[in-house]
Amino acid sequence: MLTFDETSSGVFIVSVTPFDERGALDLAGVDRLVDFYLSKGVAGITILGMMGEAPKLSASESRIFVEAVCARVGGAVPVVVGVSSPGFASMQELTEAAMGAGASGVMVAPPATLRTDSQIVDYFRMTAETLGPVPFALQDFPLATGVQIAAPILRTIADEIPTCVMLKHEDWPGLDKITALRQAEAKGGRRISILVGNGGLFLPEELARGGDGAMTGFAYPEMMVQVCRLHAMGDTDAASDLFDAYLPLVRYEQQPGIGLATRKHVLHARGVIASARIRRPGRALSGMETAEVERLIARQARRLDQLVRIEELS
Amino acid sequence: MLTFDETSSGVFIVSVTPFDERGALDLAGVDRLVDFYLSKGVAGITILGMMGEAPKLSASESRIFVEAVCARVGGAVPVVVGVSSPGFASMQELTEAAMGAGASGVMVAPPATLRTDSQIVDYFRMTAETLGPVPFALQDFPLATGVQIAAPILRTIADEIPTCVMLKHEDWPGLDKITALRQAEAKGGRRISILVGNGGLFLPEELARGGDGAMTGFAYPEMMVQVCRLHAMGDTDAASDLFDAYLPLVRYEQQPGIGLATRKHVLHARGVIASARIRRPGRALSGMETAEVERLIARQARRLDQLVRIEELS
Amino acid sequence: MLTFDETSSGVFIVSVTPFDERGALDLAGVDRLVDFYLSKGVAGITILGMMGEAPKLSASESRIFVEAVCARVGGAVPVVVGVSSPGFASMQELTEAAMGAGASGVMVAPPATLRTDSQIVDYFRMTAETLGPVPFALQDFPLATGVQIAAPILRTIADEIPTCVMLKHEDWPGLDKITALRQAEAKGGRRISILVGNGGLFLPEELARGGDGAMTGFAYPEMMVQVCRLHAMGDTDAASDLFDAYLPLVRYEQQPGIGLATRKHVLHARGVIASARIRRPGRALSGMETAEVERLIARQARRLDQLVRIEELS
Amino acid sequence: MLTFDETSSGVFIVSVTPFDERGALDLAGVDRLVDFYLSKGVAGITILGMMGEAPKLSASESRIFVEAVCARVGGAVPVVVGVSSPGFASMQELTEAAMGAGASGVMVAPPATLRTDSQIVDYFRMTAETLGPVPFALQDFPLATGVQIAAPILRTIADEIPTCVMLKHEDWPGLDKITALRQAEAKGGRRISILVGNGGLFLPEELARGGDGAMTGFAYPEMMVQVCRLHAMGDTDAASDLFDAYLPLVRYEQQPGIGLATRKHVLHARGVIASARIRRPGRALSGMETAEVERLIARQARRLDQLVRIEELS
Questions:
Q1: How far is the C-alpha of C43 from the C-alpha of C213, rounded, in Å?
Q2: ipTM for the complex shown
Q3: CA of C308: how far to CAs of A174, A200, C314, in Å?
Q4: Is the pLDDT of residue D1 over 80?
Q5: Please, which pLDDT band fits residue A1 given cuts at 50, 70 and 90?
Q6: Minimal Cβ distance to C122: which of D61, D93, D281
Q7: Is a pLDDT exceeding 80 seen at residue D130?
Q8: Interchain contact, A153 vs D115, CB within 8 Å
Q9: Among B residues 257-286, those touching chain A with beta carbons less than 8 Å apart
Q10: Which residue in A19, A22, A50, A58 has the most chain B C-beta atoms within 10 A of its own C-beta, making it the best mutation to test that interface?
Q11: Domains with residue ranges and CATH for chain A
Q12: pLDDT tops 80 at residue D296
């Protein structure tokens, strides 16, 4: 059974939040979106992350969306809910709603004001106190939050706070951080799950360093799922071959702002969501960006074809 | 009649949010707090500002607090509600609740991500579109938000957006900004109200530059009210004498973090709030800080005495 | 003849600065480094950029290195010298030394303190006044400087300051910025050269948007030179095929901090520099990083082989 | 004899750098400036600090200025030279020049890129290694540098690095930091000198917490010297009375940017420097600012008169 805990692995897809053309929550589209992710073999679904436009939803919208997603997932895989908030009262309110709706846990990124090591540790102590028994993933994403957490501080948190079950790893550069954490575990530290982010931009290397999978988004979740599987089977070259075929688009989707527009554009083109609409101040892809994305998709398809033929020849 | 519009003047006190000793909203204490502010002669009350610990309240707590304050104020003075939010959906939800409860308008600070002039203007266009007919104060507080708004850009916003009725001015340094804005008005720009902030640290100079009053907090609102009155009467020396007597404490209250603890400590000591409690990660004054504040208050009282005696002699 | 002006195109390679194993400037190695770059077909050499560890050199070391490079280049291609500085006195001193040594121009990135549009324009006015007749490239690299420059502001600078001859473009996302600048030129704006950066991570798309080439570093400059040539010949698919073969390493080299260590490691492995040493607080590649880089290089070679065979078959 | 070491106390005045009307170094004016400071009873002179416009001087200008100041001081008091630099090579070059000219030590602020505790400790280890036997003051000024150093980390540095002899304390809020440091010393930590900054805005409280004096600038150094003396004599009320008389101007001088213009304006008005000129992008006081400063000086003189009369009466 799939769970959200220290042993979680595979791809926890960071879900988009679907809106209709006027920018309202597209609740009718939730089922199709969830079904799409499940059909691609994800091990979990993370909603209300940064790329889920969480800060753009009101508190009541957030609750409604969580309920709709949890209802459709129906326990097939764990649902993790982003509850990062400028204050603990909001965090607690949304956590309670999410767990009541059937979520398996939550995700918390540190607020931009934290600087020193002790401020960071104190913050996650208060977070754990706020969440009570609810398990959480710590999102370590300095490029977005401005907060840098040294590996030994992540160890302190993991060793001291049993409800911190997972690191959503997206430091940049971050490869040595995974190694440092795994080495500390080898010396007796508590093991937690490490799922990597950044749209999967370093997925092959991160898995080799000891990542358990990915918790991030990409318009082709099947690539990340398959790369994780090939890696688990020890076929790292096949994993990298597959990854490289998608890399030009992964790179394009990693652009701040435009990245989410790209992802929603592709998911719309794939028939997964009814509208590529992003809430303000986000914007849709321009005409030239659309052409670039479509060219990358065509080249990607050609490359996947080549891969198949090369494999057949060998 | 007192209103919240382009002509507003005097002191719009930035209210603290009272908690009980366990950190819960002290709704029972709202009446006493409101009565205190009204008794000191304020021209308005601003709630859910940064020093009102707004980000630490959940959405439902915010609504409850707004309702309690508006009910007690009962239209005696305008109530302005801070609705700054990472997204427009939350901003809209709280604005509707506030106006429904009887508030006169709202206050909006820009999110920390804004950098270029056009990003700033666009943001306030979207804000105005979100708020509809509701009048708002633009909070210009770069030290807290990281967003720097040049005077000509404030003019663009004031001239283009009729619902922007007030500037909560707390740039630092900011004196020349007031002058630049007033000069542009003299050349035909639309006049808006300018109420100054920063705990009143530059109140005499800011009034002389053209400020209409203050929208900020200080544990002795009567000082700010009286300084504004003396200034309006043209007695700038008496205004400065009074201000200078309080300046050592104003300075102490301007310390980030500790400042709010100081303000709540004094309001508690004055019998205005039942507890000086601040929500996490804020903290109460340490013993040494308490002693410092009490020494400053004792010296302040002595100085006010001297002022009276000097006046009697002259 | 190759020049540094509004018409410059091709690859201006951002040179590393070679140190010996003890961290001293490796002046003896300058000739080999210059010869390597020239042999790869670069159109210019940019020294003392961020990836040239410029801030880690003393003023006297900077002058000595500029002289050594200019002497070896001997006018074969333009040499551009990074002179970004916290103050104009240092900028002027280094510019005079560089032009005296035979450089063709300089490069200037804005200081991190700039925020508003007018602060930015004023800064480059003062820069131009400081530089006098010396042509300069404006480095637009918000991820490193924190300064965001809107496209219309770049237009203002280009139109108003004739000595600003080039944009070193490395905004992220930045594709639409190139288009906006070229469209403004089409409507009568002054044309300047746009050379792209970010290690070439978006080189194919940037050239298609109107970039004239690249001003950045990568351990295989020949890739960037060849991509620019293929693009100029209209063979965009061949350009992208070549680019994609190197993309996994380009991506790896784009990691902050580790990126420069990677570049120097590869240049050392290729026999270009005598030591991969980076000055403190930089560090060399770890053992695992080295293994990752070497794996990427091996895969890259295999992929280039495949490309040749695919081409032969067609 | 006055020294720069762990026992230093009193006022180390942060000197302005005098320019002539065209912005060139006013070397002819150095003697008058130094004599002024010495005549006011300072215990040391700190040059090339942030308020000494250090980043606006070229490397050669810095050396020339250091030599001129040291020559005039002639060993009467210690001279401390700001050598903060983006790289260690520049730091070393200036330190060697300074010590050769007769300086007693240097001052180092951390670069803005540091975030985690271990990055900070590592930086000062590398600093100490760079400086060799030269004693240094660590400038802890988060508002300017963006770097927050927790008190235990300052302790680590003080305990581990014997050449770190002084903390230039200007955290904000910072009172509890002084107490924490002194308490750690009481428990066996190595004692270092703590001189406070921020223009002296919290001087009375900081001395009471355990500060040894001030290392900062203010246009009336005699106030800071006298406040330190009165405090040392145990007459804290007289110290505060004197301080309060100057506080309105201290506050005005603490405004970023305008503060230095204010200081130079007053020093020029007092006949200490030949020109109030500030190097670009700094600017001189506007007419209204000048009027404000002159009003504050007039009120300050009146208040000092009152103090004398009150004292005579008592």
A1: 9
A2: 0.97
A3: 34, 29, 10
A4: no
A5: low
A6: D281
A7: yes
A8: no
A9: 279-281
A10: A58
A11: 10-313 (3.20.20.70)
A12: yes
